[in-house]
Specification:
Elements: H1 2-25, H2 29-35, H3 38-58
Length: about 60
């Protein structure tokens, strides 16, 4: 369970990347370009949330 709690943003971002590639391979290029931004956004939000969590524990 600790593994999932630590790595869930990366797993979700990887699944979003695979989804985007699959859309591109099936010919839906607009959908692939739209969903290509999801992994970066997921990882940035995960970083922001973890930083907020860490600063709340220090105070």
């Amino acid at each position: 369970m600790k593994f999932i709690n630590s790595w869930y943003p990366i797993i979700i971002a990887f699944l979003a990347l695979v989804y985007s590639v699959a859309l591109g391979l099936t010919g839906d290029f607009e959908g692939a370009q739209y969903s290509a931004h999801w992994p970066g956004t997921i990882l940035l939000f995960a970083i922001a949330i973890r930083q907020r969590r860490l600063t709340n524990f220090k105070n």
